[in-house]
Amino acid sequence: MKTFASSGDLAEKEQRLEVLADGVYALTADGDPNVGAIEGEDFLVCFEAMATPVAASGWLARLREHTSKPIRYLVISHYHAVRVLGASAFGAEVIVTHDNTRALIAERGQQDWESELARMPRLFRDPASIPGLTWPTATFSDRFTIALGGDRGDLVLAYCGRGHTEGDIVAWLPRQKILFAGDLVEAQAALYTGDAFHRDWRGGTLDAVAALGAESLVGGRGAVAHGTQAVAAAIGQTRDFLDTMLARVGTAHAAGGTLKEAFAAAHGALAPRYGRWPIFEHCMPFNVSRLWDELSGIERPVIWTAERDRQVWDQLQD
Ligand SMILES: [Zn+2]
Fold first, then answer.
1. How far is the CA of 194 from the centre of ligand 1 (A)?
2. Burial of 154 (0-12, 13-18, 19+ CB in 10 A)
């Protein structure tokens, strides 16, 4: 029997800080959630908050080797706990999310916290340091532009449509052509689609992400994609993963099969290409369960709880 989700993944990952352009930073970690930062003339914008304040303080110490500017904005790409619950460590003046992300935190933030803590305990370094749910202080529906000052250009926060969740946003530097894509794009890491809208994501949402024309892309997990070819490959991999799930789960669903048959078909089709990538086994039961619901006409993802996680896992992994 497989170990539940990522609860058996306890080996520390090596973190790697990359300077992508003057004042643009990405921290990647072998498939753990990526974070970033962008310098304005006299302030900083941080992208993603990690799972706990203690985890975030390690990243901030690395960042402080490069800049001492105060953090004005903390941008959070979506509501998932491992992206948001470290927010208090940043001391940001403004915490920005999409409108839908604020609503999702209100609706299911507490359940998601408990679910993710059990699924990915290693990421929750000192969970007692979390002061509570993170609440945005500024939200938007379409675009939110931050003028960076000097000749640094703008940082454009944009909503590209429903995808990994109902409220994902990307952070785009049009002058530097660098994109922080959050979990809408993964580069050599498996997709988590347990809260997703698969058809929107593989269609108009990824089209909108691709249309930005990024030359460097920081995905939700995995290495930074450098160059237009690598960016296209990361977006293409994300779409292929979704298309394969839609095809295999869709066939089983249309044939009147069972969830378990759909899981076996999707797992079998994806494993040769994606099975060795981070969190593949962890994600697949939750992914197939959500897609099955989506194909059954359940519009919004059912809330994951620590209890429901175990039920779905046990049903599909035995
Ligand atoms: Zn996520």
1. 9
2. middle
